[in-house]
Amino acid sequence: MSAQPEVVQPEIARKQAYEAGKLAKRLRHQVGQAIADFGMIEDGDKVMVCLSGGKDSYTMLDVLLSLQAKAPVRFELIAVNLDQKQPGFPQHVLPQYLTERGVPFHIIEQDTYSTVTRVIPEGKTMCSLCSRLRRGALYHWAAANGVTKIALGHHRDDILGTFFLNMFYQGSLKAMPPKLRSDDGRHVVIRPMAYCKESDIADYATHRQFPIIPCNLCGSQENLQRKAVSRMLHEWERQHPGRSETIFRALGNVAPSQLVDRQLFDFASLGTREGAQRADAHAWLAGTESDNHS
Ligand code: SF4
Known about the structure:
CATH superfamily of the largest domain: HUPs
Shape: globular
Number of strands: 6
Bound molecules: iron/sulfur cluster
Largest sheet: 6 strands, mixed
Number of helices: 10
CATH class of the largest domain: Alpha Beta
Strand order of the largest sheet: 3-2-1-4-6-5
Number of domains: 2
Distance between the termini: 79 Å
CATH topology of the largest domain: Rossmann fold
CATH architecture of the largest domain: 3-Layer(aba) Sandwich
């Protein structure tokens, strides 16, 4: 009777190791694909990996490190954390982890916590101001230290959540781009995990046993609208598996002539003489070009 667990346990462990290997491979593949699709990293780049201590940024760093070891191009990685001076922030956790792994890192110390708690009335969500201040501190450090790319740990489900938040509450069709130039024009921000599912990242972080630091030390309430959208997406996914992936694919498969944005598509000249002339000119040019190539 007692022999049974001994037989079963190694089998379970073997299966778990196999699944973890598959998951790691999938995340590496998706990150590598996003980097290639959006030209995120080039030879000679110095990539600042923004590390908050949450599951997403640990996973991003881990996957980028393994891709760096095999990449055909040479690029530098530096992990940067902002110590916002929240009460109870375990300052030793990240330096210890990064030192053990031999990852170059820097900790920026800036008391954004006091500013946020002073400016935002009690009981209100602080995340928006907190993120703005955090971004400012990180961008400032990047500019002073020759960083060419700033990597953020947002994933596919963050992109989808932002898409629906903008649609429901801002009346605009926009999400979170995998690559962008910062508002001040000085930085290129990349999101290498744009293709990765949050549940995969959570499983990976558990398997790798990252020393997670919670992001609620400040006592802020999580954004309720974002929470509601996230619940909606989970429910859809539960009822119709694969729906999130389909919506995500739609974000990369836009047909401006089938929407109603007059800035994106010239509806006004459709069917007018001017429009017809322009269409003729396009057709003629296209014909000339194909003649030239033949
Ligand atoms: S939970 Fe706290 S630390 Fe995290 S973004 Fe919001 S205000 Fe900032």
